[in-house]
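Dear H.,

Thanks for agreeing to be a second pair of eyes. The structure we're designing against is below in token form, covering all 305 positions.
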């Protein structure tokens, strides 16, 4: 295993399940390299995280990532600042005690703070395919277009690089889908030119609906993709992505159902609003992820994403 020159140790007393957090479908460049040890490329640097009792060993190719010392970066990146005692409201706990008990078993699953452009392109790749294939696509983007870091690792490509890429090469990274590749290149061009300002969309002064509607202007970004990018890449915790499993638990647990198999934009938004009315706007995204995990693991008995 590659020796990384910089290391730090972060002591904490909060729930953290690294494997669930890194492999639940919100990030796609992490690998398990040893027992309790995981390595990925984050913000252009190799990062290795090893879980210890109430502590985290952090190793990297840089002493600072995204401008922050390793301890501070890991605390923020892993969402350890989230106060889980405020995640579910007293009224929710009182009305749905069984759901609170089920979801609270997975409090170690955290909401990552990812690099916005990588999250944007990753979820544009994700439509209609499984996590294993998404991981291969994202890795291929980095392999073909990223900058060398160390050994075989490369960074995720910059917007300018993808904006100038040959469409025939991009197609290989987009599951051989030329329309998807064209949409990705167009979005990369918009980011490179500053027309789509991801920093502005992730700023505390930008509200969720503004960020969401801005993303939806671009071909290749639908309702669910916009919500995934807002939640996992832009930090808008109000976002509530809906897939088949989420629809199932909304119906089974809360009686929220639709009469159609395919969701129109209007129906999708209605489901989101109904979910936020139950879970609260502030933490709907993370609360929904824990319920999603509980539904898949305990109710449906699924072992992989």
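And this is the sequence the design step returned. I haven't edited it by hand at all.
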């Amino acid at each position: 295993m590659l020796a990384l020159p910089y290391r730090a140790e972060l002591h904490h007393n909060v729930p953290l399940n690294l494997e669930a957090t890194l492999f639940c479908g919100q990030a796609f460049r992490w690998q398990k390299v040893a027992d309790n040890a995981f390595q990925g490329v984050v913000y252009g640097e190799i990062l290795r995280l090893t879980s210890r009792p109430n502590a985290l060993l952090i190793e990297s190719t840089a002493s600072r990532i995204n401008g922050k010392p390793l301890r501070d970066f890991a605390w923020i990146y892993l969402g350890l600042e989230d106060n889980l005692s405020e995640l579910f409201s007293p009224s929710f706990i009182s009305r749905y005690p069984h759901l609170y008990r089920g979801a609270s078993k997975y409090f170690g699953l955290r909401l990552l703070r990812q690099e916005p452009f990588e999250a944007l392109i990753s979820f544009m790749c994700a439509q209609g395919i499984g996590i294993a294939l998404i991981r291969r696509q994202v890795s291929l983007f980095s392999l073909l277009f990223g900058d060398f870091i160390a050994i075989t690792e490369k960074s995720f490509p910059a917007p300018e690089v993808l904006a100038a890429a040959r469409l025939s090469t991009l197609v290989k990274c987009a599951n051989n889908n030329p329309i998807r590749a064209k949409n990705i290149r167009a979005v990369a061009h918009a980011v490179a030119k500053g027309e789509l300002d991801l920093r502005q969309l992730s700023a505390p002064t930008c509200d969720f609906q503004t960020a969401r509607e801005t993303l939806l202007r671009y071909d290749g970004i639908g309702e669910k993709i916009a919500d995934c990018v807002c939640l996992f890449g832009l930090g808008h915790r109000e976002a509530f992505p809906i897939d088949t499993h989420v629809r199932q638990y909304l119906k089974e647990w809360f009686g929220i159902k639709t009469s159609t198999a395919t969701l129109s934009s209007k129906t999708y938004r209605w489901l989101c609003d109904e979910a936020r009315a139950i879970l609260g706007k502030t933490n709907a995204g993370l609360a929904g992820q824990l319920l999603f995990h509980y539904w898949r693991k305990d109710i449906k008995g699924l072992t992989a994403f």
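Two observations from my side: The longest helix spans residues 284-299. The chain has three domains: 6-81, 86-109+237-305, 116-232.

Warmly,
E.
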